[in-house]
Known about the structure:
Layout: H1 2-6, H2 18-36, H3 43-53, H4 60-84, H5 88-111, H6 132-144, H7 150-170, H8 175-196, H9 205-214, E1 220-224, E2 233-238, E3 243-250, H10 251-267, H11 279-295, E4 302-308, E5 313-319, H12 336-351, E6 354-355, E7 364-367, E8 370-373, E9 380-381, H13 385-403, H14 405-416, H15 418-424, H16 435-441, H17 445-463, H18 478-496, H19 501-509, H20 513-536, H21 544-560, H22 564-575, H23 580-608, H24 620-643, H25 645-667, H26 669-696, H27 703-717, H28 725-740, H29 745-761, H30 764-776
Antiparallel strand pairs: 1-2, 2-3, 3-5, 4-5, 6-9, 7-8
Helix pairs in contact: 2-8, 2-10, 3-7, 4-5, 4-6, 4-7, 5-6, 5-8, 6-7, 6-8, 12-14, 13-14, 13-15, 13-16, 14-15, 14-17, 15-17, 18-28, 19-29, 20-21, 20-26, 20-29, 21-22, 21-30, 22-23, 23-25, 23-26, 23-27, 24-25, 26-27, 26-29, 27-28, 28-29
Amino acid sequence: MRRAAFGRASEEPYRRRTSDVARLVIAAAAVALLARRSDHVSAFSRDVFRAFNDLPDGLRDTANVLYGLGALWAVATVGTAALVARRWRLARDLAVAGLAGWLVARGLGLELAEGSLRHIVRAHVTPRFPNVRLTVVVAVVAAAAPFLTRGVRRVSWLIVLLMIPSALYLGVALPRSIACAVVLGWGIAAAAHVAFGSPGGRPTMEQVRHALAAVGIDAHDIALAPVQPHEHTLVEAKDATGPIVVAVLGRDETDARVVSKLWRFLYYKDSGPDLYLSRQQELEHQAYVTLLARDAGVRVSTILAVGTGGPATAILAQRDVGGPALNTLTADTLTQDALVDLWSQVVKLHGARIAHGRLNTSRIRLSADGPALVGFSFALTSAQPHECAADVAELLATTSVIVGPDRALGAALTALGPEQLADALPLLQPAALTREGRRIAGHGKHELDKHLDALRTGGAAAAQCKEPELEQLQRVRPANLALAIGTLIGVGALLSAVGDPSVLGHALTRAHPLPLVIALVLSLATTVGYAIALAGAVPRRLPFWPGVELQSAGVFSNLALPFGSTALQVRFLQRQGIDTATAVAAGGIATVFGTAAQAAVFGVATAAAPQRVHVGSIPKGAVVTLLGVLLGVILVASAVLLSVPALRKRFVPPIARGVHELLDVLRSPRQLGLLLGGSALSCVLFGLALTSCLYAVGEHPSPFGVIAANVGVSLVAALVPFPGGGTAVASVGLSGALVSLGVSETDAVAAVLLHQLLTKYVPAIPGWLALRTLMKHDEL
């Protein structure tokens, strides 16, 4: 009975999964949304409730049994875990989840009003929001799910499903109450898994044995490997010939990876292995890459079988190559001949256009025949040069920890040659390495920076090339802060001069808070669009969430430094392994396509607006004059640059490289889409934020007209070259444009002032936090 219900797998090691954290956050948001109007009963909810509640009274006994069965099943699950299976830790987790479900549901019910729907209460129980019994049952069942076998788990969820119509028929819960109870119980189970950890639905050793038998392998001594990778469960076993290693993907494990992959995609470049239509396809891809590498002469494991053993487990069985992992060796054990042999394997791998994706010392075994490459979960076929260079950088960073920079660089130079070694040097940055590589290469920020700096310097000397340099950041000085404060005061004084200040103050005090909150959220969301646009301006894949943090940090930096965000952006891109010329060119590319996207948004919004947008208060003559002056300066500077040989030799190659990057962007539909789409998204969000500010002061103009006015004025104001000038021109011009849309002058000024505060000054607070986070994680 113990095996049939809980299996034979050891509960260790427990893991706190990213997917559980995501479930907890989603559940909290859903409960807050459902509880916000707990006393409201929509027409749809009323119809659903009456469809069950109006059934004949003859079903009462059956409904009472089904409704009571859930509570009995929850108690039985806890009792079975404790008394029959003797899984005391599991019993504790389930008991805590059930008790927490009861307490939270009861506490929430005391704070919320009951619905006003007339209904039949056959169970003589007052309806509560949320339904307490269903909350407890769902909490216990969801908390037990990773520990249960598939059959028992399905029975558990079937009982939960049967409780829902029973509760509606008995009249003890309304549809919104049931939905809140299910989500609340699901979230409490996730909280229990985050607090105590769980096996995450890892397949049992019995399931692995059956899966191996299904593909024709009679294995014994099956056990979890002592070191577990992130991407799958690794199992060690033996057959008649010798040791084998088995990569295992269970159904629950695969489901959990979807949310985990989403989070890793948002925060890291290495978002985990690609998602496939089935677990077997994923393992077949790993086997395919391994066979390609073998055919190219690379020393790899021997594939024994790949397939599924029943509906619960997919496996990839390989003959163990033997030998220790390189990260467990010392400098004396790892000879120079072995190092050169390892790099020759890398040359063969890249010659077959395969990038390993995790080429560090934990994924290399020193077998009897020499170094062998294992762990192709992240491998890519048809690899691009920068992906191969990332392999080289990671292997250099991790092997040098064992043998030192000189020996590691000497072996790499012997096999690769100076050109390929030089290509990898810009990627010797903490942010350009994978998380696994950073963990092996250094145990702290300063230690890792020092190690990689020495490796870059030695690599440049060995390859006889110039060492990649990082753009230095300037500290925020008191003078710069004074400049930012002065700009804010100047804008406030300018806007206060437009209209009666007392009337303006009255308009601000009567502003509704909810639209202002929405405007702030929209303003902060514009960093997402800018991060997408920057990702389209460079050839190398950028991490998404740090890119969003970079744009947020730029808001703070621009308050303290004119063009401060440009230095941050260049430094960030260099940390991602992008050379200085490309990093600088990326800013120009993003600006050019951002302007094009703004013009497109302006045209569409103007056409869709019900009123004509006027920007007559913008000093167009001064702007045209300024453009002429700038064009003249550019022509003169270009003539000087081309006529002086020293300047031409220094500056023309980076400019040519920037033009080359621009042409590459024009040839890539994906990068064009990211550039234009991200910039357009930011434009629209800024316009919607201004619309929310207008709603806050009681004005309701067309969003299309507001977007057109905001974009049109911003295009002109961006040409003002001195700090604070663009803000002042945009404020005055935008107020006039809004007046042309029918907004009163006082409300227009109030809305524009609020918009400036919410888009340029308030976001500096999270921008400061983002800057600290980026520096802490070595992204700057």
